[in-house]
Amino acid sequence: MKSALEKLNRIDRHILRELQADGRITYAALAERVGLTTTPCIERVKRLERDGYIKSYTAAVNPEQLDAGLIVFVQIRLDRTSKQSFEEFKNALIDLPEVQECYLVSGNFDYLVKARLADMAAYRVFLQDTLLSVPGVQGSTSIMVMEVVKETLAIPVPYS
Amino acid sequence: MKSALEKLNRIDRHILRELQADGRITYAALAERVGLTTTPCIERVKRLERDGYIKSYTAAVNPEQLDAGLIVFVQIRLDRTSKQSFEEFKNALIDLPEVQECYLVSGNFDYLVKARLADMAAYRVFLQDTLLSVPGVQGSTSIMVMEVVKETLAIPVPYS
DNA sequence: ACTGAAAGTTCCACAGA
DNA sequence: TCTGTGGAACTTTCAGT
């Protein structure tokens, strides 16, 4: 079984690195960085997009300045007796703008939710009125983030 | 105290939404979407960048296709007796490419680390040879992600 | 799969309101 | 802070290797 990265040659991996570092780089500048002219460079980028290596491009905005400076992880335990609970919970959660990540995880609880809130007041409202009022939720444990040590979106792509 | 969002007018918030949804949109198209001509639109984007609302632009790549399909959260307990441990730990962690997020958190353990690995074999190596061999680490608990329900980078910016 | 060039867009600085 | 304009830069297509 070939590793996923080996399907991409050195230039493609270089392109992925550059586009992760600067998603708005021009094709002309990108081509120069990876040692191509613009035409084949654009072709490679389009193929990376088509093949799903690049899902989208996005501006990374600063949560601190946008009423979302508080990060909290909430472990949610669901009522396991009904299988319907899981689907209901997912559907309820997926549209909440405060919820940035949600995972089904191993262990004593069922879901791990990462949310961004303005402050503790907003957190209390979110937990009580939103999360805990979803049908099937049995209990929760919150982990408050005191300090962000690292937070990156980048997937490492080796060998320049 | 004015909320952070209220420092931005409707057009600026609209720009932030559009750039989060498509980080490579041309200024011409962005200007049309927000109802401006290109010159003032570019000025607003540059100001949002200067004022730190926009931190960077990035391509979102697919971890599944890049040997990083497995997500694991590791709770790390540190030796609390030495204050030096915290700095050492942070410095050791911050450069690890597998570590996508790292937080100092409240509760029984000290750090919560989110890492992306190729598979369970890579996870075991990472935990033993990398995380647990950092000086000052007393213990760890791992939470394996079974299913990704939601994973977004976007910070909600209300009122179009 | 790449080069180079031509034609069409976009960017961006400047003048003006 | 906006509109409009013109030259430079960039994108994109196409013929050729």
Oligomerization state of this entry? homodimer
| CATH class annotation of the largest domain in chain A | Alpha Beta
Write down how many β-strands of chain A occur, each being a DSSP E stretch of 2 or more residues: 5
Strand order of the largest sheet of chain A: 3-4-2-5
Portion in helices of chain A? 25-40%
Overall 3D shape of chain A: elongated
Description of the molecule:
Two copies of one chain form a homodimer. Chain A has helices at 10-21, 27-34, 38-50, 84-94, 120-131, and strands at residues 54-61, 70-78, 99-105, 111-117, 137-151. The longest helix of chain A is centred in the first third of the chain and has 13 residues, at 38-50. A four-stranded antiparallel β-sheet of chain A has the order 3-4-2-5. The two termini of chain A are 23 Å apart. Chain A is elongated and about 60 Å long. Helices cover 35% and strands 29% of the residues of chain A. Chain A is built from five helices and five strands, in the order αααββαββαβ. Chain A folds into two domains: 8-50, Winged helix-like DNA-binding domain superfamily/Winged helix DNA-binding domain (Arc Repressor Mutant, subunit A, Orthogonal Bundle), CATH 1.10.10.10; 63-144, Lrp/AsnC effector binding domain/regulation of amino acid metabolism (RAM) domain (Alpha-Beta Plaits). In chain A, strand 3 and strand 4 (111-117) form a beta hairpin. With 160 residues, chain A is α+β, with helices and mostly antiparallel strands. The interface between A and B is large, with 64 and 64 residues. The structure holds a DNA duplex (17 and 17 nucleotides).
